Amino acid sequence: MSEQRWSEVDGYIDALFPPPDDALSEALARSDAGGLPPISVSFAQGKFLGLLAKMHGSRRILEIGTLGGFSTIWLARSLPRDGVVITLELESKHAVVARANLDHAGVGDLVDVRVGPAVESLRELIAQGVEPFDFIFIDADKESYPQYLELSLRLARAGTVIVADNVVRNGEVVEASSEDGRVSAVREFLERAAASDQLEGSVVQTVGTKGYDGFALLVVSG
Ligand code: SAH
Ligand code: DHB
Ligand code: MG
Hints:
The protein is α/β, with parallel strands linked by helices. It has one domain (3-220): Rossmann fold (3-Layer(aba) Sandwich).
């Protein structure tokens, strides 16, 4: 089955379940115009993330890796009125674009964009003793996924859902001796998650406009 067909099916899905307004397309256009890389989740994947958060009744969401706020908008739109997304981004240039996109989408009041290395922002959140998050989306630099998992667990409670993007990597995840540091880090992330007696999980492989990849789905058991 060809990549072209995967994209055609994404087009079909997007036409069946269109977003409620143009804010999401405009967010991508503004991200492109601002020189951000085109590495957000797809429309169908953004909707999927929002649905997972909504199905879980999430009120407090943590996102690691904001880019232009495309996935953030989907997550924020899944929230009840008193909900909040805290999203962490290294690049201030990305955060500026994300802030404009979130405000334009009408969810600016629900979202706190924190600029800096996510490991530091996570440690600050832990030090502040913030209320645990209901839903955590990991999507920043792949090399840090093992650390993001460990720190996320310190911001979680029994029942917290953790979703991580890009864990299949065009199938390269099966290459135990890969010299790509992103592949070895994602493998370490998955192996630690699988070995943890605090987590239950699986991986859902995905295809579409973003190629062949996958989401890790984890739930904190206690
Ligand atoms: N979640 C976004 C895509 C995120 S792309 C979406 O689907 O719409 C990954 C983002 O992580 C990039 O914006 C990159 O700048 C950011 N990033 C990379 N390393 C980081 C780090 N150490 N701390 C925080 N963010 C980081
Ligand atoms: C990259 C990062 C992502 O989060 C993604 O979904 C695709 C690509 C990257 O860094 O290349
Ligand atoms: Mg990603």
